Fold:
Amino acid sequence: MSDRPVVRFLDRTTPPHIFTLILLAGVSALSMNVFLPSLNNMAVHFHTDYALMQLSVAVYLGFNAILQTILGPLSDRFGRRPVVLSGFAIFTVASIGCVLAPTVETFLTFRMIQAGVVVGMVLSRAIVRDMVPRDQAASMIGYVTMGMTIVPMIGPVLGGYLDEIFGWQANFWILTLVGAGTFLIVWFDLGETAKHRSASFAEQFTQYPELIKSVRFWGYCLTSAFGGGAFFSFIGGAPFVGTVVYGLSPSELGLYFIAPGIGYFLGNFASARLSVRLGIDRMIVTGATILVISMTISTLIFVSGLGGVFLFFGTITFVGIANGMVIPNANAGMLSVRPHLAGSAAGFGGMIAIGVGAAMSGVAGSILTKETGAIPLLLLMSGTAIVSLTCILTVLWRVRQLGLPEYED
Structure:
Protein backbone atom coordinates (compact mmCIF):
# COMPACT_ATOMS: atom_id res chain seq x y z
CA MET A 1 0.00 0.00 0.00
CA SER A 2 2.87 2.39 0.79
CA ASP A 3 4.14 2.06 -2.80
CA ARG A 4 0.86 3.15 -4.34
CA PRO A 5 1.15 6.28 -6.50
CA VAL A 6 -0.35 9.56 -5.42
CA VAL A 7 -4.07 9.83 -6.19
CA ARG A 8 -5.44 13.11 -7.52
CA PHE A 9 -9.21 13.52 -7.66
CA LEU A 10 -10.64 14.11 -11.16
CA ASP A 11 -7.32 13.16 -12.74
CA ARG A 12 -7.70 9.90 -14.61
CA THR A 13 -3.94 9.61 -15.17
CA THR A 14 -3.73 8.54 -11.50
CA PRO A 15 -5.60 5.69 -9.79
CA PRO A 16 -9.28 6.47 -9.06
CA HIS A 17 -10.03 8.38 -5.87
CA ILE A 18 -11.71 6.36 -3.13
CA PHE A 19 -14.65 8.80 -3.29
CA THR A 20 -15.28 7.68 -6.88
CA LEU A 21 -15.20 4.02 -5.87
CA ILE A 22 -17.61 4.70 -3.00
CA LEU A 23 -19.90 6.58 -5.37
CA LEU A 24 -19.91 3.71 -7.89
CA ALA A 25 -21.02 1.25 -5.22
CA GLY A 26 -23.29 3.74 -3.48
CA VAL A 27 -25.47 4.57 -6.47
CA SER A 28 -26.11 0.85 -6.93
CA ALA A 29 -27.27 0.65 -3.31
CA LEU A 30 -29.37 3.81 -3.62
CA SER A 31 -31.18 2.44 -6.65
CA MET A 32 -32.06 -0.66 -4.68
CA ASN A 33 -33.58 0.92 -1.59
CA VAL A 34 -34.49 4.60 -1.98
CA PHE A 35 -38.02 3.83 -3.17
CA LEU A 36 -38.84 0.99 -0.76
CA PRO A 37 -41.01 3.14 1.56
CA SER A 38 -43.10 4.03 -1.51
CA LEU A 39 -44.02 0.49 -2.59
CA ASN A 40 -47.56 0.64 -1.22
CA ASN A 41 -48.22 4.07 -2.74
CA MET A 42 -46.79 2.90 -6.05
CA ALA A 43 -49.15 -0.09 -5.98
CA VAL A 44 -52.07 2.30 -5.51
CA HIS A 45 -50.84 4.56 -8.34
CA PHE A 46 -50.58 1.68 -10.81
CA HIS A 47 -53.83 0.04 -9.57
CA THR A 48 -52.10 -3.20 -8.69
CA ASP A 49 -51.41 -5.20 -5.53
CA TYR A 50 -48.33 -5.20 -3.34
CA ALA A 51 -47.07 -8.59 -4.50
CA LEU A 52 -46.83 -7.38 -8.12
CA MET A 53 -45.31 -4.06 -7.12
CA GLN A 54 -42.74 -5.87 -5.01
CA LEU A 55 -41.48 -7.42 -8.24
CA SER A 56 -39.74 -4.07 -8.78
CA VAL A 57 -37.25 -5.46 -6.28
CA ALA A 58 -37.14 -9.09 -7.41
CA VAL A 59 -37.09 -8.33 -11.17
CA TYR A 60 -34.38 -5.72 -10.65
CA LEU A 61 -32.25 -8.19 -8.71
CA GLY A 62 -32.86 -10.97 -11.22
CA PHE A 63 -31.75 -8.90 -14.21
CA ASN A 64 -28.96 -7.56 -12.05
CA ALA A 65 -27.71 -11.13 -11.63
CA ILE A 66 -27.85 -11.84 -15.36
CA LEU A 67 -25.92 -8.67 -16.17
CA GLN A 68 -23.11 -9.58 -13.82
CA THR A 69 -22.21 -12.63 -15.91
CA ILE A 70 -21.67 -10.27 -18.85
CA LEU A 71 -20.17 -7.19 -17.19
CA GLY A 72 -17.20 -8.99 -15.66
CA PRO A 73 -15.97 -10.58 -18.91
CA LEU A 74 -16.71 -7.37 -20.81
CA SER A 75 -14.51 -5.42 -18.44
CA ASP A 76 -11.72 -8.00 -18.66
CA ARG A 77 -11.85 -7.74 -22.45
CA PHE A 78 -12.51 -4.03 -23.10
CA GLY A 79 -11.47 -2.44 -19.79
CA ARG A 80 -13.22 -1.19 -16.67
CA ARG A 81 -13.68 2.42 -17.78
CA PRO A 82 -15.86 2.03 -20.92
CA VAL A 83 -18.06 -0.59 -19.28
CA VAL A 84 -18.68 1.59 -16.21
CA LEU A 85 -19.52 4.64 -18.32
CA SER A 86 -21.93 2.66 -20.50
CA GLY A 87 -23.70 1.20 -17.47
CA PHE A 88 -24.33 4.59 -15.89
CA ALA A 89 -25.55 6.11 -19.14
CA ILE A 90 -28.13 3.33 -19.50
CA PHE A 91 -29.15 3.67 -15.84
CA THR A 92 -29.78 7.41 -16.18
CA VAL A 93 -32.05 6.98 -19.20
CA ALA A 94 -33.92 4.09 -17.56
CA SER A 95 -34.55 6.19 -14.44
CA ILE A 96 -36.37 8.76 -16.55
CA GLY A 97 -38.38 5.91 -18.08
CA CYS A 98 -39.50 4.79 -14.60
CA VAL A 99 -40.87 8.26 -13.86
CA LEU A 100 -42.80 8.51 -17.12
CA ALA A 101 -44.08 4.90 -17.21
CA PRO A 102 -47.86 4.83 -17.87
CA THR A 103 -48.42 1.26 -16.66
CA VAL A 104 -46.91 -1.09 -14.11
CA GLU A 105 -45.62 -3.32 -16.92
CA THR A 106 -43.75 -0.41 -18.50
CA PHE A 107 -42.42 0.61 -15.11
CA LEU A 108 -41.12 -2.90 -14.41
CA THR A 109 -39.43 -2.95 -17.83
CA PHE A 110 -37.53 0.26 -17.15
CA ARG A 111 -36.84 -0.91 -13.61
CA MET A 112 -35.23 -4.00 -15.09
CA ILE A 113 -33.07 -1.85 -17.39
CA GLN A 114 -32.05 0.25 -14.39
CA ALA A 115 -30.13 -2.81 -13.19
CA GLY A 116 -27.33 -1.67 -15.51
CA VAL A 117 -26.12 0.40 -12.56
CA VAL A 118 -24.82 -2.82 -10.99
CA VAL A 119 -21.71 -2.16 -13.06
CA GLY A 120 -20.65 0.20 -10.27
CA MET A 121 -20.99 -2.41 -7.55
CA VAL A 122 -19.26 -5.17 -9.52
CA LEU A 123 -16.41 -3.26 -11.07
CA SER A 124 -15.57 -1.11 -8.04
CA ARG A 125 -14.42 -4.39 -6.45
CA ALA A 126 -12.53 -5.48 -9.56
CA ILE A 127 -10.87 -2.05 -9.77
CA VAL A 128 -9.69 -2.38 -6.16
CA ARG A 129 -8.31 -5.85 -6.90
CA ASP A 130 -6.51 -4.39 -9.95
CA MET A 131 -4.74 -1.97 -7.62
CA VAL A 132 -3.79 -3.96 -4.49
CA PRO A 133 -3.17 -7.60 -3.33
CA ARG A 134 -5.67 -9.90 -1.61
CA ASP A 135 -5.82 -9.00 2.11
CA GLN A 136 -5.28 -5.32 1.32
CA ALA A 137 -8.11 -5.61 -1.21
CA ALA A 138 -10.39 -6.88 1.56
CA SER A 139 -9.40 -3.90 3.70
CA MET A 140 -9.89 -1.40 0.87
CA ILE A 141 -13.20 -2.97 -0.16
CA GLY A 142 -14.17 -2.62 3.48
CA TYR A 143 -13.43 1.10 3.40
CA VAL A 144 -15.30 1.51 0.11
CA THR A 145 -18.39 -0.32 1.36
CA MET A 146 -18.14 1.43 4.73
CA GLY A 147 -18.46 4.74 2.92
CA MET A 148 -21.15 3.27 0.69
CA THR A 149 -23.27 2.31 3.69
CA ILE A 150 -24.14 5.94 4.26
CA VAL A 151 -26.41 5.54 1.24
CA PRO A 152 -28.57 2.70 2.64
CA MET A 153 -28.90 4.70 5.85
CA ILE A 154 -30.15 7.91 4.25
CA GLY A 155 -31.72 6.49 1.07
CA PRO A 156 -35.00 5.15 2.50
CA VAL A 157 -35.30 8.17 4.81
CA LEU A 158 -34.91 10.51 1.86
CA GLY A 159 -37.26 8.38 -0.24
CA GLY A 160 -39.94 8.33 2.44
CA TYR A 161 -39.97 12.11 2.84
CA LEU A 162 -39.82 12.73 -0.91
CA ASP A 163 -42.83 10.44 -1.33
CA GLU A 164 -44.88 12.31 1.26
CA ILE A 165 -43.97 15.75 -0.15
CA PHE A 166 -43.72 15.23 -3.92
CA GLY A 167 -44.96 11.69 -4.61
CA TRP A 168 -43.11 8.47 -5.40
CA GLN A 169 -41.83 9.77 -8.76
CA ALA A 170 -39.44 12.11 -6.94
CA ASN A 171 -37.34 9.10 -5.94
CA PHE A 172 -36.63 8.27 -9.56
CA TRP A 173 -35.87 11.89 -10.48
CA ILE A 174 -33.23 11.79 -7.74
CA LEU A 175 -31.81 8.60 -9.26
CA THR A 176 -31.69 10.33 -12.65
CA LEU A 177 -29.67 13.25 -11.28
CA VAL A 178 -27.34 11.01 -9.29
CA GLY A 179 -26.75 8.75 -12.29
CA ALA A 180 -25.86 11.69 -14.55
CA GLY A 181 -23.58 13.21 -11.91
CA THR A 182 -21.76 9.93 -11.34
CA PHE A 183 -21.23 9.52 -15.08
CA LEU A 184 -19.44 12.89 -15.17
CA ILE A 185 -17.25 12.12 -12.15
CA VAL A 186 -16.27 8.73 -13.60
CA TRP A 187 -15.46 10.38 -16.94
CA PHE A 188 -12.91 12.69 -15.34
CA ASP A 189 -11.56 10.52 -12.49
CA LEU A 190 -11.50 6.88 -13.58
CA GLY A 191 -8.69 5.87 -15.88
CA GLU A 192 -8.18 2.29 -17.01
CA THR A 193 -7.00 -0.06 -14.23
CA ALA A 194 -7.19 -3.41 -16.07
CA LYS A 195 -3.66 -3.72 -17.42
CA HIS A 196 -4.01 -7.25 -18.77
CA ARG A 197 -6.79 -7.72 -21.32
CA SER A 198 -8.12 -11.03 -22.58
CA ALA A 199 -7.66 -11.80 -26.26
CA SER A 200 -11.40 -11.99 -26.90
CA PHE A 201 -14.75 -11.67 -25.17
CA ALA A 202 -15.51 -15.34 -25.84
CA GLU A 203 -12.24 -16.30 -24.17
CA GLN A 204 -13.57 -15.02 -20.87
CA PHE A 205 -16.48 -17.47 -20.96
CA THR A 206 -14.17 -20.34 -21.86
CA GLN A 207 -12.24 -19.56 -18.67
CA TYR A 208 -15.31 -19.77 -16.43
CA PRO A 209 -14.70 -23.53 -15.88
CA GLU A 210 -11.40 -22.60 -14.25
CA LEU A 211 -13.39 -20.70 -11.63
CA ILE A 212 -16.16 -23.29 -11.39
CA LYS A 213 -13.65 -26.06 -10.57
CA SER A 214 -12.26 -24.10 -7.62
CA VAL A 215 -13.55 -25.30 -4.24
CA ARG A 216 -12.45 -22.07 -2.59
CA PHE A 217 -14.21 -19.89 -5.18
CA TRP A 218 -17.52 -21.64 -4.51
CA GLY A 219 -17.01 -21.41 -0.78
CA TYR A 220 -16.49 -17.66 -0.81
CA CYS A 221 -19.20 -17.18 -3.42
CA LEU A 222 -21.96 -19.11 -1.62
CA THR A 223 -21.03 -17.75 1.79
CA SER A 224 -21.45 -14.22 0.44
CA ALA A 225 -24.60 -15.15 -1.47
CA PHE A 226 -26.50 -16.65 1.43
CA GLY A 227 -25.17 -14.13 3.95
CA GLY A 228 -26.44 -11.38 1.69
CA GLY A 229 -29.59 -13.45 1.10
CA ALA A 230 -30.67 -12.70 4.66
CA PHE A 231 -30.52 -8.98 3.89
CA PHE A 232 -32.29 -9.31 0.54
CA SER A 233 -35.03 -11.27 2.28
CA PHE A 234 -35.39 -8.30 4.60
CA ILE A 235 -35.59 -5.89 1.65
CA GLY A 236 -38.33 -8.01 0.09
CA GLY A 237 -40.43 -8.35 3.24
CA ALA A 238 -39.70 -5.41 5.53
CA PRO A 239 -41.82 -2.84 3.63
CA PHE A 240 -44.84 -5.14 4.06
CA VAL A 241 -44.08 -5.80 7.73
CA GLY A 242 -43.55 -2.10 8.42
CA THR A 243 -46.57 -0.70 6.60
CA VAL A 244 -49.17 -3.47 6.82
CA VAL A 245 -48.29 -5.24 10.07
CA TYR A 246 -47.11 -2.23 12.10
CA GLY A 247 -48.87 0.63 10.25
CA LEU A 248 -45.78 2.77 9.62
CA SER A 249 -45.92 5.75 7.25
CA PRO A 250 -43.37 5.96 4.39
CA SER A 251 -41.20 8.43 6.31
CA GLU A 252 -41.35 6.33 9.49
CA LEU A 253 -40.44 3.21 7.55
CA GLY A 254 -37.52 5.06 6.00
CA LEU A 255 -36.21 5.95 9.45
CA TYR A 256 -36.36 2.32 10.56
CA PHE A 257 -34.34 1.35 7.49
CA ILE A 258 -31.40 3.20 9.02
CA ALA A 259 -30.85 0.18 11.31
CA PRO A 260 -29.25 -2.20 8.77
CA GLY A 261 -27.19 0.66 7.35
CA ILE A 262 -25.70 1.42 10.76
CA GLY A 263 -24.87 -2.24 11.24
CA TYR A 264 -23.34 -2.56 7.79
CA PHE A 265 -21.21 0.52 8.43
CA LEU A 266 -19.87 -0.99 11.67
CA GLY A 267 -19.21 -4.37 10.05
CA ASN A 268 -17.32 -2.81 7.17
CA PHE A 269 -15.34 -0.68 9.61
CA ALA A 270 -14.29 -3.89 11.34
CA SER A 271 -13.31 -5.40 7.98
CA ALA A 272 -11.32 -2.33 7.00
CA ARG A 273 -9.40 -2.32 10.27
CA LEU A 274 -8.97 -6.04 10.94
CA SER A 275 -8.90 -7.99 7.67
CA VAL A 276 -5.18 -7.51 7.02
CA ARG A 277 -4.34 -8.42 10.62
CA LEU A 278 -6.67 -11.39 11.14
CA GLY A 279 -7.07 -12.69 7.58
CA ILE A 280 -10.23 -12.90 5.54
CA ASP A 281 -11.27 -16.43 6.56
CA ARG A 282 -11.44 -15.62 10.26
CA MET A 283 -13.42 -12.46 9.53
CA ILE A 284 -15.92 -14.40 7.40
CA VAL A 285 -16.49 -17.10 10.02
CA THR A 286 -16.96 -14.49 12.76
CA GLY A 287 -19.46 -12.51 10.69
CA ALA A 288 -21.45 -15.59 9.66
CA THR A 289 -21.60 -16.73 13.29
CA ILE A 290 -22.97 -13.35 14.39
CA LEU A 291 -25.60 -13.62 11.65
CA VAL A 292 -26.79 -17.06 12.77
CA ILE A 293 -26.92 -16.18 16.47
CA SER A 294 -28.77 -12.88 15.99
CA MET A 295 -31.39 -14.33 13.64
CA THR A 296 -31.96 -17.39 15.82
CA ILE A 297 -32.53 -15.28 18.93
CA SER A 298 -34.85 -12.87 17.09
CA THR A 299 -36.90 -15.71 15.63
CA LEU A 300 -37.32 -17.39 19.00
CA ILE A 301 -38.45 -14.13 20.60
CA PHE A 302 -41.09 -13.52 17.91
CA VAL A 303 -42.32 -17.12 18.00
CA SER A 304 -42.80 -16.73 21.76
CA GLY A 305 -45.03 -13.71 21.11
CA LEU A 306 -42.71 -11.08 22.60
CA GLY A 307 -41.60 -9.38 19.38
CA GLY A 308 -42.44 -5.88 18.18
CA VAL A 309 -41.49 -3.26 15.64
CA PHE A 310 -38.43 -2.02 17.57
CA LEU A 311 -37.06 -5.52 18.04
CA PHE A 312 -37.74 -6.47 14.42
CA PHE A 313 -35.75 -3.58 12.97
CA GLY A 314 -33.22 -3.56 15.81
CA THR A 315 -32.23 -7.15 15.06
CA ILE A 316 -31.43 -6.16 11.49
CA THR A 317 -28.60 -4.03 12.85
CA PHE A 318 -26.76 -7.28 13.65
CA VAL A 319 -27.54 -8.60 10.16
CA GLY A 320 -25.82 -5.49 8.83
CA ILE A 321 -22.80 -5.99 11.10
CA ALA A 322 -22.48 -9.60 10.00
CA ASN A 323 -22.76 -8.79 6.30
CA GLY A 324 -20.23 -5.99 6.70
CA MET A 325 -17.75 -8.60 7.91
CA VAL A 326 -18.71 -11.42 5.54
CA ILE A 327 -19.27 -9.76 2.18
CA PRO A 328 -16.10 -7.62 1.70
CA ASN A 329 -13.87 -10.47 2.83
CA ALA A 330 -15.70 -13.13 0.82
CA ASN A 331 -15.55 -10.88 -2.26
CA ALA A 332 -11.82 -10.32 -1.80
CA GLY A 333 -11.31 -14.07 -1.49
CA MET A 334 -13.49 -14.76 -4.49
CA LEU A 335 -11.52 -12.32 -6.67
CA SER A 336 -8.17 -13.65 -5.41
CA VAL A 337 -8.64 -17.32 -6.25
CA ARG A 338 -7.75 -16.53 -9.88
CA PRO A 339 -6.44 -12.92 -9.98
CA HIS A 340 -6.16 -12.92 -13.79
CA LEU A 341 -9.92 -13.51 -13.91
CA ALA A 342 -10.85 -10.87 -11.33
CA GLY A 343 -13.48 -9.24 -13.53
CA SER A 344 -15.04 -12.55 -14.48
CA ALA A 345 -14.97 -13.70 -10.86
CA ALA A 346 -16.68 -10.48 -9.79
CA GLY A 347 -19.33 -10.95 -12.46
CA PHE A 348 -19.97 -14.67 -12.03
CA GLY A 349 -19.80 -14.52 -8.23
CA GLY A 350 -22.00 -11.45 -8.24
CA MET A 351 -24.54 -13.25 -10.41
CA ILE A 352 -24.76 -16.07 -7.88
CA ALA A 353 -25.04 -13.65 -4.96
CA ILE A 354 -27.68 -11.45 -6.54
CA GLY A 355 -29.53 -14.45 -7.98
CA VAL A 356 -29.87 -15.88 -4.48
CA GLY A 357 -30.87 -12.42 -3.25
CA ALA A 358 -33.54 -12.09 -5.95
CA ALA A 359 -34.97 -15.48 -5.05
CA MET A 360 -35.01 -14.66 -1.33
CA SER A 361 -36.59 -11.27 -1.97
CA GLY A 362 -39.32 -12.80 -4.12
CA VAL A 363 -40.05 -15.52 -1.59
CA ALA A 364 -40.20 -12.99 1.25
CA GLY A 365 -42.72 -10.86 -0.61
CA SER A 366 -44.98 -13.85 -1.24
CA ILE A 367 -45.06 -15.57 2.17
CA LEU A 368 -46.10 -12.66 4.38
CA THR A 369 -49.62 -11.89 5.54
CA LYS A 370 -50.94 -9.55 8.20
CA GLU A 371 -51.94 -12.57 10.29
CA THR A 372 -48.51 -14.24 10.28
CA GLY A 373 -46.65 -11.01 11.00
CA ALA A 374 -42.86 -11.06 10.70
CA ILE A 375 -42.31 -14.72 11.68
CA PRO A 376 -42.11 -16.25 8.15
CA LEU A 377 -39.59 -13.57 7.14
CA LEU A 378 -37.45 -14.22 10.22
CA LEU A 379 -37.49 -17.98 9.57
CA LEU A 380 -36.37 -17.38 5.99
CA MET A 381 -33.56 -15.10 7.13
CA SER A 382 -32.45 -17.61 9.77
CA GLY A 383 -32.29 -20.37 7.18
CA THR A 384 -30.10 -18.38 4.79
CA ALA A 385 -27.81 -17.43 7.70
CA ILE A 386 -27.27 -21.08 8.64
CA VAL A 387 -26.47 -22.00 5.01
CA SER A 388 -23.93 -19.15 4.83
CA LEU A 389 -22.05 -20.33 7.92
CA THR A 390 -22.20 -23.95 6.78
CA CYS A 391 -20.67 -23.07 3.40
CA ILE A 392 -17.58 -21.34 4.76
CA LEU A 393 -16.98 -23.95 7.46
CA THR A 394 -17.31 -26.79 4.94
CA VAL A 395 -14.88 -25.21 2.51
CA LEU A 396 -12.30 -24.44 5.18
CA TRP A 397 -12.53 -28.05 6.37
CA ARG A 398 -12.11 -29.26 2.79
CA VAL A 399 -9.12 -27.01 2.20
CA ARG A 400 -7.38 -28.33 5.33
CA GLN A 401 -8.25 -31.92 4.42
CA LEU A 402 -6.67 -31.56 0.98
CA GLY A 403 -3.68 -29.69 2.37
CA LEU A 404 -4.19 -26.81 -0.06
CA PRO A 405 -1.99 -23.74 0.35
CA GLU A 406 -3.42 -20.86 2.34
CA TYR A 407 -3.32 -18.58 -0.68
CA GLU A 408 -3.77 -19.37 -4.32
CA ASP A 409 -2.76 -15.99 -5.74
About this structure: The chain has a mean pLDDT of 82. The domain at 18-402 is CATH 1.20.1250.20 (Growth Hormone; Chain: A;).
